[in-house]
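Sharing a chain and its predicted structure for anyone who wants a worked example. Both blocks are below, sequence first, tokens second.
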Amino acid sequence: MRGFKLYLKLLVALVLVLAFQNCSSEFNSNFQDGNTLTSTVPESTSISEQKEPSPPKKEEPPVKPIREITLNGEGQVLDGSTHNFSLSDSGAINGVTRYDIWIDGKDYSTSVVAPATSVVAFGLPTDGKEHTVTLRPPAGYTEDEFTPFTAKFIAADATDIDGEIFPLNFGHSNIPFGSLTSDHLASWVPGLRASRKREHLSVVMENGQGVLRHRYTPSSTGSERVVFQYNIPHQRSYRMKYSVYFEPGFKWGSQYQGGKLAFGFGGGAAPSGGQVNSAGFTARVMWRGNYLGGGKYDGTGRFVMYTYNADRDLSKSTVGLDTQFGNYSIPIGQWIDVVFEVTMNSATSKSDGSMRGWVNGNLLVNKGNMKWWASGDQPRIDTLYYSSFYGGSNAGWAPPNTTYIKVRDVAFAPVINGLSAISP
């Protein structure tokens, strides 16, 4: 029995030895063949693992812009009447030869045709709101074949973009010379600040409208200085309009010929009378006799913008600077429409101010790169004032006799982003 147990132990030992040798041989064979052992546990996915590349994007066809289009009045306030819409074109775009006009997103049922220049008239509501005109291709064309052109503008009638326009109503009854009171002046525009010599003003009724009449009586300083001023809402830019009538018999002056005319603007220190103060400005219109030199005039008159701007040349004189309204000759005995616009420089350190002036709708003054203010507060227009007299400051400016002018249809309005209720 003992021998049999020993035999079983030897047999088990032999089996184990043979099994070990077989495993060792398989391992060595795999290693020599260059095989490596791999884990049966799956590897974690790396953050930087590359994704399958996306298919290439389809290239969009290039968008072809429409040719130059001009909308008369774009960027301006229109008066609601018929306006022209011009398309300058030298050929079709992707075969488009007719462009439909849409206004405020609605088909206007008309079109312009290319090539050549086409003009289409359209009327607009006078509501003071922004409107959009768009040129589109006819049905069948897509946005990637044609880029619609859009122009924005504002149609208004006596209402500027903010609804602000300040007309001066001189009343509905005659007011003789010597009877005009400060209450009358205060009723024309809110914010009356001061007045002097108003006895030289009257109001006369013409065609149901109050018209301001000014009497110029010769004096030792030219004529009496009639001045009144109003505080007005601060703006960088204002536009003024009025119609003026030089009555028959009006004279430009005598030895010296010139005088301040009607309404103007001021701001800050509002220098005048030869003052030098860069913390403010004044701007108004003057008449001037047409000077030939050598103390001689030719008997005709000219309009000038008369300005106390900080950057005027002070080397010869400290009085205001003249900028003439072209060579326009002022007629006697006719109504004349005058419009002027004053835009302050945006800061005292900048020279980006401007002024423009029109007579009977014609632009005759157009001056930029101005520095109205050079010190003090933010440049602004804060004063409306009437300042009218012959002179000058001595009797050499006086007219040979009493003269008269009349002024009507006076209004002023802010100019914001180039837009104003007052059209030249």
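Comments welcome. The first strand starts at residue 69 and ends at 71.
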